């Protein structure tokens, strides 16, 4: 009987240069993901590519490797557009790991960072510009840089950029870069406006689809609790006590994220929040602290739902269901990465059954509704006010335990 040997894909036969293959080996990348296996050869041949892939599928290497290799051969500059500051910083980090041995120079153009420092980095003639659309337009309007040397442009998380209103800026930027360029676009979904943009600004692009919209990792255990808002903190308290490991909690609003983080700290867990009211430095510190274990819990708005590559998250909690069913997929995709297992728990009100049905229709799966466990009426003091002195915290705690009121509530909201 003849046995068929399964041949695992590797990076060696994708057309990658020996120097970059050596770097991938040092970084312990042994086998390409499906999006990398299909995109890298096409991109290295100079083809335009539309990649339909979910977050966490390895897209950064799929476009980063071809961009670094082609720019080293053909000179010129690369441009990568991304929807959020955090994603831009993450992509830049990966590019530096790939290109530091070759003297790769990059500049990150994002809001919340020093414009003066960005101008100085632009003057050093970077090989790759990593930017959010809004900040890039600002620099173009101030004539701090020009796009006449762009040889390759990447639009990552294109559907997310559409959702948050960046499409006019993207079209403006695409009209300014040279027509003789290579374009790669990645998106989790393919709405009509993005298909039209691909037809208008790309040259017969290869469409590579590795995960249909709504695809959820099979290793994620999903649950829903139908729980009114007034009971959610007590349920959260029990879930955090019963589950170990790092936890990512999603709130619909930035005010809610701040409030939840304060309550979680009051439960005795190390926690930090990330949302648009936090400065860039605060957001960077929060993500770094969550990655290195300084904080067990990260409370976030949907700004962190896409592209934030934090390994080892054991539990994702949707304290509020997202407004958009697609965001549910991106949120829970923060766990069960790189073949690991994970759990996603969602809280929902009785008036949100339609939202649940929309999510289930998208993911083609029924999410089990769990019975509410016995909850202790826990009184938790929110430590949401940063900078509260120890004595003030102690007095606040004693007053709250005695009267059931938080004397600082008005000031902390």
Give an overview in words:
With 413 residues, the chain is of the alpha/beta class. It folds into two domains: 11-209, P-loop containing nucleotide triphosphate hydrolases (Rossmann fold, 3-Layer(aba) Sandwich), CATH 3.40.50; 220-380, 3-Layer(aba) Sandwich (Rossmann fold). The protein has helices at residues 18-26, 34-44, 59-74, 85-99, 115-123, 133-141, 158-163, 167-176, 192-201, 232-242, 254-266, 280-292, 325-332, 353-363, 390-403, 409-412, and strands at residues 49-52, 77-81, 106-109, 128-131, 150-155, 182-187, 206-209, 220-226, 246-250, 271-274, 297-300, 313-318, 342-348, 369-370. The strands form two sheets. It has a seven-stranded parallel β-sheet. The chain has a seven-stranded parallel β-sheet with strand order 10-11-9-12-13-8-14, sandwiched between helices. Strand 3, helix 5 (115-123) and strand 4 (128-131) form a beta-alpha-beta unit. Helix 2 packs parallel to helix 3, helix 3 (59-74) crosses helix 4 (85-99) and helix 6 (133-141) crosses helix 8. The model is unreliable at 1-6 and 384-413 (pLDDT under 50).
What is the CATH superfamily of the largest domain?
A: P-loop containing nucleotide triphosphate hydrolases
CATH topological fold name of the largest domain? Rossmann fold
Tally of contiguous helical segments? 16
The CATH class designation of the largest domain is Alpha Beta
Q: Give me the secondary-structure category.
A: alpha/beta
Low-confidence stretches: 1-6, 384-413
Q: What's the number of extended β-strand segments? A: 14
Q: Provide mean pLDDT, rounded.
A: 86
Quickly count the domains.
Answer: 2
- How far do the termini sit from each other? 72 Å
The whole-angstrom Rg is: 23 Å
Q: Portion of residues in helices?
A: 40-55%
Question: What is the level-2 CATH architecture name of the largest domain?
Answer: 3-Layer(aba) Sandwich
Question: In this structure, how is the largest beta sheet organized?
Answer: 7 strands, parallel
Order of helices and strands: HHEHEHEHEHEHHEHEEHEHEHEEHEHEHH
Q: Strand portion, in percent?
A: 15-25%
Indicate the overall shape: globular
Sheet with the most strands: spatial strand order: 3-4-2-5-6-1-7
